Every structure is written in structure tokens, then in C-alpha cells.
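User: My advisor asked me to double-check a structure prediction for DUF420 domain-containing protein before group meeting. I don't want to rely on an old file, so could you generate it fresh from this sequence?
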Amino acid sequence: MEFRARDHVRGLTALLSVVSLALVFGAVLGAIPRAAIPTAPDAVFDAIPHANALISTVAIVTIVTGVRFIKRGDVEKHQRMMLASFLLFATFLVLYLYKVVVKGTTPFPAQGPEVVYQFIYLPTLAIHILLAVICVPVVYYAMLLALTRPISEVFGTQHARFGRIAASLWLVSFVLGNVVYLLLYVVY
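Assistant: Sure, here is a fresh prediction for DUF420 domain-containing protein from the sequence you gave:
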């Protein structure tokens, strides 16, 4: 019996989602041993938040551009922009997880006002994290529907519906991630 990814999109989505989220939560909760990861110079760790803010900003542009291309009917350019968005997201995640595993999470600066921390930073961070987690299976599902079929067959799937949801979640999550970055590294 031959395995065909196109016949197992839901199962592959579940598998990829579980593995991805296990890595994320494993890193954040300290389940991945720091000794297992090589340590870079401090300058690399200092640069990661700034690089990730840039990556997020570029991802926002590629997602918006990809949506505009599909609205115009330019499927090939849409595909390129969405794949670029996914690669940017993956790069962001690898850098973020590397920093978290080796150095831990970044606390809100002590000089930041408590009111900003409680009523702006924490809600923004919580919504960003929630949307990022929800986004993972939705993005995988939309992407796998598109990648496992010829273009002519993609239109007969739920790709467009899940793609709209994924793009919306992605955009809001990336924007809120940049707000968190600004609060942690620029404003305070």
C-alpha cells in the first residue's frame, strides 16, 4: 500500500502540529536541556530579538502581499509569498526557541510601569501566544492542502477558507509580537 500525503492531510497536520507545539512548550518550560544546545556568543543572543522583529515585519509584508496576489488571481505569486511567510515563521521560531532554551525568556523590564505591564504587556503577550498556538495547525492544514495537490485541485478543497483564517491569525500574531518586542526592547 502506497502512502500519499494528499490522502492524509488531517493526520499530517495533527502530527506536525503536535511536534511543533511540543518543541515550543518544551523549550519554554525548560524540558529541553541547555547542555544539549551549543552556546553562541552573547552578541548573537542580543541580536535575536531585533532579527526576529525584522523577520516578523517582513512576514507581515509577505502575508499581505500573498493575500493581494490571490485576490488578483495570481496563484503562482501567492504561493511564493505564502511559502516565504512560512519560511520566515520557521526562521523566527528557530531563533526564538534557541534563545529561550539557552538563555530563558525575557522578563518585562523593572523600570516599566506596573500599569503598562498589567494592562498592556500581559494581555498583548497572552493574545499573541494564544493566536500563535491556534495558528500552527491552521497554517499546516492550509499549506498541506495546497502542497499535496495540483493547483487545479486546490480550488476544490478547504484551502481558501483555512488560508483566510491562517493569514488573519498570522498577521495579528506577528503584529502583537512586534508590540511585545517594542515594549521589551525599545520603550522600556
